[in-house]
Specification:
Blueprint (H helix, E strand, L loop, with lengths): L3 E5 L11 H9 L2 E4 L2 H10 L6 E4 L5 H13 L4 E3 L13 H9 L3 E5 L5 H8 L6 E6 L4 H10 L6 E5 L5 H12 L4 E6 L7 E6 H11 L5 E5 L8
Helix pairs in contact: 3-4, 6-7, 7-8
C-alpha cells in the first residue's frame, strides 16, 4: 500500500495561523519535507513537532529530491510537504513532485491554510469576481517593463508578488507603465504585527515606499483597465 502526500499550509507570519488539522498531520507524518532546512527546523520546533525523517525540496534540488520523496511514498510512508511559509507549490517549489505523484496515481491531499493571495484580494477593494494572478514578474527591469506593457489593456484585477527588496523597483515600473489613474493596493507584511495596507495610485505608493525605504513581504494588487467605471 502506498503512502499519501499531504500539501500542508503553514503561517505566513502569525504563528496562530495554523490549523489543528495541519498540526495533526505534521505530528503523524512519517516524513516531513521542507523547503529550507533552517526555516523548516524552526517551524517544527515552534510547534513541538519531532523531525523524524526530514527531507529538503527547493528550487535548487527539486527534480532530484522529488524522485527520493516518491520512493518514500511507494514504500507506504506518509509525506507532509511544507514551504518556508504559506501554501506549498503555490509560488513555491513542489510542482514537479505533485505531477510525478499524479503520474504514479498516488494520493495527494491538500491541507488548506494561510496564503497571502486571498487576504490581499479581499482587502484591496477592487473587483475580484475575476482576477489575474501574474505572480512574479521578471527580475530584469527591461523584461519586467515589457511584461507590464503587455498587461496595460487587462480588465481584470491583477496580482503581483516579488522578493522583499524589489518592492520599490517594481512600484516604479508599475507607475511608469500604468500611469497615475490606475488604483493600486499593497498588502505589506500580512498577518505580522507590522502589517500595513496601502492604497493609492502607483506613483503615490512608489514615492511613499521609496521615501520610507520599505522592504518586506508584500502583495501588489492593481485594478484592471476601466476598473472605476465597472
Amino acid at each position: 500500500m502506498t503512502g499519501t502526500l499531504y500539501l500542508v499550509s503553514t503561517p505566513i507570519g502569525n504563528d496562530d495561523d495554523i490549523t489543528y488539522r495541519a498540526l495533526n498531520i505534521l505530528k503523524s507524518a512519517d516524513v516531513i519535507v521542507y523547503e529550507e532546512r533552517k526555516e523548516g527546523q524552526r517551524l517544527l520546533a515552534r510547534y513541538g513537532i519531532p523531525e523524524k525523517i526530514v527531507e529538503s525540496l527547493n528550487e535548487h534540488n527539486e527534480a532530484a529530491a522529488s524522485f527520493h520523496i516518491l520512493d518514500y511514498l511507494q514504500q507506504g510512508k506518509n509525506v507532509a510537504l511544507i514551504s518556508d511559509a504559506g501554501t506549498p507549490v503555490f509560488s513555491d517549489p513542489g510542482q514537479i513532485l505533485v505531477r510525478k505523484a499524479i503520474d504514479q496515481r498516488l494520493t495527494i491531499v491538500p491541507v488548506p491554510g494561510a496564503s497571502s493571495l486571498l487576504p490581499a484580494l479581499t482587502v484591496c477593494g477592487f473587483p475580484i469576481d475575476q482576477f489575474l494572478f501574474y505572480g512574479f514578474l521578471s527580475p530584469k527591469s527591461n523584461r519586467r517593463i515589457a511584461e507590464l506593457r503587455h498587461l496595460t489593456n487587462e480588465k481584470r484585477t491583477m496580482v503581483f508578488m516579488d522578493t522583499p527588496y524589489r518592492l520599490v523597483p517594481l512600484l516604479r515600473d508599475i507607475a511608469d507603465i500604468f500611469g497615475d489613474q490606475r488604483r493600486v493596493c499593497i498588502a505589506f507584511n500580512l498577518t505580522m504585527p507590522e502589517e500595513e495596507i496601502f492604497r493609492g495610485s502607483a506613483r503615490e505608493l512608489f514615492r511613499h515606499c521609496e521615501e520610507k525605504k520599505m522592504k518586506g513581504e508584500f502583495v501588489i494588487v492593481v485594478e484592471g483597465k476601466g476598473g472605476k467605471s465597472r
